[in-house]
Design brief:
Largest sheet: none
Helix content: 55-70%
Shape: globular
Number of strands: 0
Structural class: mainly alpha
Number of helices: 3
Length: 102
Amino acid sequence: MDFSTFIFDQALILIPALYVLGMILKEWNQIKDNWIPAILLISGVAGALAMMGINGESTPEQITQAAVQGVLVTGTAVYTNQLIRQYQKTIPNDGKDENAGA
């Protein structure tokens, strides 16, 4: 499957940016985990609107397309995070107890 049919080249840079932002938000204990996807979605849509050069003369179709790109890159970043987490669960921890010392 070719990502370029769904996500524009201009918006691809947002995927790692959103992934890193999500990791930062996760480590920052001021924000509950259930709010992180919403924050990433708002950031992704705003980033896509900015990356695609949306301004006062943009058509509704261009704005909608940029917003959809924001949703797609956010979904890709969150999905990537979940794939990594699920993969890490399959790796044996060499007898180390994750809850030790807690």
